[in-house]
Amino acid sequence: MDENLKFLLTTVNEWLRFLEAKHTALIALNGAAIIGLVQSLSSIGNPSLLLLIPYWLIPGLVLAVLTSLFAMTKWASLVTPWHRGQRLLVPNALYFGYISALSVTSLQAELARVTGLSLPMTESQALLTQQIHTNACIAYAKQRLFHWAITCTFSILLGCFTAFWLIRWAKAIC
């Protein structure tokens, strides 16, 4: 059982590292885009772009960066309680979303059922289970925040490009 718990802890920790890397990449990408846009504002002659970039595009990218930065803080786990029922629909003891939806006691019972271990767990097994649960909650929160940050990034980019082309098209037919 200890080997199974260590494997599960390693798996959850790998997901946690992967999600942190995704946030770091999104922060770098959006940060570079913001810096490039701010530096190029003075050379833009199109009035439509001068309206869209500083008032819509840059604030949207800043919001995505702030969301990813929030995911790097200890307060990110406040996001975990949301969507609990949906995570329970797919019972998979290896999935960090399912693990985070369970209580520690329920997780211990689920792991005992899956691995055939008899309850109560030893103290080291209980501590490993508690750490797995904590890390799964953090990983789920980071996954949700990444979803929000990437959605914000793509939505603002698509919205600004669409608005620019609509303004350009409207001027062309007038």
From TrEMBL:
InterPro entries: PycTM_dom. Residues 5-166 form the Pycsar effector protein domain. It comes from the Bacteria. The keyword Signal does not apply. Keywords: Antiviral defense, Cell membrane, Membrane, Nucleotide-binding, Transmembrane, Transmembrane helix. It is found in: Cell membrane. Its main location: membrane. The keyword Transmembrane applies. The chain crosses the membrane at residues 25-44, 56-76, 88-109, 145-167. Coiled coil: none annotated. It holds the Pfam family PycTM. This is Pycsar effector protein domain-containing protein. It comes from Hymenobacter wooponensis. The lineage of its organism: Bacteria, Pseudomonadati, Bacteroidota, Cytophagia, Cytophagales.
